[in-house]
Fold these 2 entries.
Entry 1:
Amino acid sequence: SLLTARQLDLDINLKHVDLLKSEQFLPAFLAINPEHTVPTIVDGDLALWESRAVSGYFVNKYCKGDWLYPEEAKPRARVDRMLMFDMGTLYIRFTKYVLPVVFKGSKPDPEAKKSLLEALMWFDTFLENSTYSAGSTITIADHSLAASVETIKQSKISIARYRNIKAWLQLCQDNMPGYEENV
Amino acid sequence: KRLALDYYYAPASTPSRGPMMTARALGIELNLKSVDLVKQEQLKPEFLALNHQHTLPTLVDGSFVLWESKAIIGYLVSKYGKDDDALYPREPCKRALVDRLLYFDMSLHQHFRDWAFPAMKQGLPPCPEALVKFQTYLGHLDTHLRLQGTRFVTSDTICVADQTLACATTTYRELGVSMISHPHIVSWLQRCEADMPGYADICLEGANIMAQCFKEILTVK
């Protein structure tokens, strides 16, 4: 959602919540978001969480034109499909592979890794005939997916074999303001 | 309305039911095509040619193929709904709340799967720790309903998030998941049963199919 904010040139007042210090459980934050998740935004009366809902809100509310999240049925559906793929397939398979290792000291599970690589393979195939994840221009799906793929890369999973993902990620890096600082 | 919309789905699959509820509310008829996951029909070449990620549900509208249940829901309202359908309002703040709950639904169901699937698919005993996590998530929904104070999840009018969450929570209830700590979910579901088109024959019927197969496996002894 930070990438979306930067793409829209929105002024965001960043408030860091230290999860290691359990700051998400402080009463002041629970009063805003009883589910105590990050990111969370407060825009006047609206408190909103779920990063992809936040990105959608930024565009719906502040974007002149709909280029980042089209209004028309089919192009919007393509963006929604990729947002859901990111959340429900790609990122979840990444967490299932990495989190037990990081938080429980478990050995990496080869089945979980296979599952993640399958998701990357699917994503690579989706990009075969598509410059960006949902079509020929950047959308909020690319913001979401770029953050996920960069996180996957940080855990030493190579994307070198995924030609289309590599090319797409480079495009994201070149065309998303604030890429370096936000991913 | 009779349109040429092919809908590939699995009757027992909870995510399959949300778009069916949306279609019913919009008054459009889906051409239902059941895909047997036990026989691995989703891996048949004809289906892979449509959707090589081989997930359900999948919608075919002419030459447009779409999967991911929530993308399908958005598409149906956008294409076939009223100009600013209360099911999925366009006003940014109202829409944001519906979207937040659609994503919440996805996480909730993931936590359900984490608890239920090892038992359902691999015959392992249900994991109490995973059940606690899942119940915590149900608690978030109950808290939301309490704080929101409206008849349905975002307002006094049914929206698409009510449809997906009703399908999910009805399934959990019929599978024997305790709702004793979630009185607001219980009363909201009663309102859904009374007011939501398709609740009986889509939502409840699908939940009962799941219960027939899996309730016993998931009952903690």
Entry 2:
Amino acid sequence: MGEFKVHRVRFFNYVPSGIRCVAYNNQSNRLAVSRTDGTVEIYNLSANYFQEKFFPGHESRATEALCWAKGQRLFSGGLNGEIIEYDLQALNIKYAMDAFGGPIWSMAVSPCGSQLLVGCEDGSVKLFQITPDKIQFERNFDRQKSRILSLSWHPSGTHIAAGSIDYISVFDVKSGSAVHKMLVDRQYMGVSKRKCIIWGVAFLSDGTVISVDSAGKVQFWDSATGTLVKNHLIANADVQSIAVSDQEDSFVVGTAEGTVFHFQLVSVTSNSSEKQWVRTKPFQHHTHDVRAVAHSPTALISGGTDTHLVIRPLMEKVEVKNYDAALRKITFPHRRLISCSKKRHLLLFQFAHHLELWRLGSTVATGKNGDTLPLSKDADHLLHLKTKGPENIICSCISPCGSWIAYSTTSRFFLYRLNYEHDNISLQRVSKMPAFLRSALQILFSEDSTKLFVASNQGSLHIIRLLEGSFKHLHTFQPQSGTVESMCLLAVSPDGNWLAASGTSAGVHVYNIKHLKLHCTVPAYNFPVTALAIAPNTNNLVIAHSDQQVFEYSIPDKQYTEWSRTIQKQGFHYLWLQRDTPITHISFHPKRPMHILLHDAYMFCIIDKSLPLPNDKTLLYNPLPPTNESDVIRRRTAHAFKISKIYKPLLFMDLLDERTLVAVERPLDDIIAQLPPPIKKKKFGT
Amino acid sequence: MVQLRPRASRVPPSAMVDEGQPASEEEEEAEHGLLLGQPSSGAAAEPLEEDDEEGDDEDDDEAPEELTFASAQAEAREEERRVRESVRRDKTLLKEKRKRREELFIEQKKRKLLPDNILEKLTTAGQTNIKKSSGKLKEANLQKENEDCDKGSDSKKAKVQKVQSVGQDKSYLALRLKGQDLRDSRQQAAEAFVQNSLYGPGTNRTTVNKFLSLEHKRLPVKKAAAQFLNNAWGTQKKQNAKRFKRRWMVRKMKTSKK
């Protein structure tokens, strides 16, 4: 494999934002997650829990509610008072409609999917009609005294329950008047000065209203009489979210202490027909508040301030008990946030509102395998580039020669030219960027840094030629007629002839840059692409999918390579397929065409195509074999996949030159150190 | 009346005469005041003075002037008229000033607004609302001849606003400032409500450091508190502590030297 010096980088201060709302869509098995910075991410739960789409955030858009409507339409409401509909095909915001009620706290879609209810700051509940292309205001319900923090429809669509501060109201939908007003105790069997905030309500079809509040209680109310039926005190802190399953036999609640409780409807004795709600399972997968929970038919989904998304499949609901039934915790991003300039040893870090440019340190010492070499020159923070405006940065890139930086937000595209004199760097902005470049999903520079490739969210690919201090628009590849599909990933061949682009569903398109036309399309695969790269010299396109399959496609021959067919026939090792995190970057060694370097969050692997492939019986993760081991053992365990788990959690890994690697790690402890304060827990013995 | 106080300084009679005239006028007026119904205490105070001044006037030995009621009344009316005139003049002056200021304001506002042709276009343009920051106006390509556009856009507030895009000319965007302050304040109040209810007083929150340190304490192999294990923790506090220690040492050295 060779010996490498590894730059271990830990100064990327990446802190993801906390999860605020979660909405599960049953028809497509997709999960929409909205974060505190306004980003909305769509996870495809059947494609190995891969984040396939995302909408960039906005500073003023404090999303407080998210819901799916009929026909795969996603709506969100926030504290800026607007209802936003997202276009899932074009990956932009369709429209934002002001609800004129002040900040929006809650939103619920009717069971039939055609009406939308919004609970506002001024105490009004507004009903909107969902028309095929927009939403239309229908009427207001009776106005309440305090803000409406949670809403829930009765499955028949005739009544709704609205949770506010210190009380819950039940409305009749036809008349719009409040039928019952149920007052909630401020504290369990006591009086407290703090107001009781009803964070969540759920309406069951037998008329029971379940409410969760800030005093730590889960209460069952009878909506016909407006009385309290049962009271469960489950936590010392707020219970912040509730989600009921479709069959209404189980529901899940999330507390501020990070515990998620599962309630189930069980019969009182083994052969009686009478059932009651019992708290069955506690799960402690979070350290901070669990602000959003969702209940899919087979799993409990929770997300909160500690930024993890936890999907816990329920054992009794899962049909096949294999690795799919294990706990999934999504912590690290599924996209690349770091780009690297190999010639100048520069790293560009992408944050939500700024970019940082660092130069790697250097060392003159040498050592043996496993040594830590002292730095003769420290890593240097060269540039801190803040973006103007409230929008988040979608993507960014630095050219391989290090003289161009480009990044894009929803409304603008920025291109900067960097000049290096001795140790100083100066920045110059290229003005008057064309408008069609904005909302780019992926930016890539060619190897010789003369061309810029931009994939926009409308499905088109733009090629820009870069000249000294200015640019010239060369060509735009339009998407196939009829489809508006956003191109998410780009790869360019080192010789500059081929450009590969992958969308969200169709296959990978390969374009010929010299003749500016489509060359071929790799056949579509039912799992989304997570990483793309084109090898030098051989021009083989290596594609990694979210189900951990890796394909190699030869571009000049327009077919899969021999090696790819062999490994598809044999299949990957079962441990390889059971990894949870997707492969986010693929790169190649300039002198060794048989090596492919790829990494995911917890390992990096060099695939040696000349060595035999492992079958299920061989050991996948070999430790580095010592030289004095016998040849027999070495022959038995030598296979193509050389995996190392030394550096984790990895955000980025690349080959800088023949003997140097750079690995950007982000230890979880450093993320936790910057989170908001958690609830104090009293533990025995401390 | 007995003269209780002897006069200390004898002022020359000429001065007395001068004094006498206004004094006599005052006397007359005082008398008239008495006739007109002024408070008796004032009248009661006056006779004393009258007597004293008459005492001074005795040097002059002039008979007091006779003023008819009509003339005094005319004088009083003159006085009132004069006062009324001055008040009216003041009022008109103030009005003028106010008018001038209003005009000045209107002119300034007009200067701030975009020229008429753009405003016309705005009212006839489509109703699409796009949110843009005003910083963009400064850099967007203005394809108008007059520079008033630039001035107008430069003076706008730098906040996120709702805009209306102008029909065919999408090279710049206009801002609508009305109602944005109210919306912002409501949003801030809502965010403050959430912050207060989750992290405000009465909630049982602790720092991440203490939270993790408790966990370390409960592990089977006990570890130290998180702030000591992680070097990056509490760098500001450590810096402050270092600075304080240095200053304290210096102080200690100074006092020990003495």
